[in-house]
């Protein structure tokens, strides 16, 4: 498979479940890969935590979910309600399984994006496996969610990277 564009963003966040130090999004012709990395406490290196492949339908669903989240953030800022709501569900496949087998529905994992609104106007958004307590990605603030949306839309976190791929 040929990857057209690789985008990297560093997200530093605090979460009660898990914090991702770095998220990468690689967009190919028929697949998008999202990987999370955590920084090693003993060095400056990052360790791959999780990596998933999303097909075109799942990417569209995730993009729509991010757009919905942005609207809900505005609503929560004006209404100040405590609530939890599932935004969307989409299928993913672990990257290594996909590389070995191609897409096999039995190996796919259903993920869910959940919005947690608080009465003070704050929020948290989690992407996690459906019916699981483990969390794949957490967005505790608007800026990180917007940067993730930009990556899904093909905009790089670094203009130098865009220049390399344009050549």
TrEMBL record:
Keywords: Signal. Residues 1-19 form the signal peptide. This is DUF4252 domain-containing protein.
């Amino acid at each position: 498979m040929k990857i057209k564009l690789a985008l990297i963003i560093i997200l530093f966040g605090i979460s009660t479940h898990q914090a991702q130090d770095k998220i990468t999004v690689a967009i190919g012709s028929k697949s998008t890969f999202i990987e999370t990395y955590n920084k090693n406490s003993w060095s400056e290196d990052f360790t791959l935590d999780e990596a998933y492949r999303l097909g075109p339908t799942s990417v569209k669903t995730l993009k729509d979910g991010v757009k919905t989240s942005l609207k809900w953030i505005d609503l929560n800022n004006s209404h100040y309600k405590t609530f939890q709501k599932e935004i969307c569900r989409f299928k993913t496949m672990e990257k290594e399984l996909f590389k070995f087998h191609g897409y096999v529905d039995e190996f796919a994992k259903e993920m869910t994006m959940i919005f947690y609104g608080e009465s003070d106007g704050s929020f948290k958004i989690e992407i996690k496996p459906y019916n699981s307590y483990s969390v794949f990605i957490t967005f505790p603030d608007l800026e990180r969610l917007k940067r993730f949306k930009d990556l899904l839309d093909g905009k790089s976190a670094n203009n130098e990277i865009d220049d390399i791929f344009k050549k």
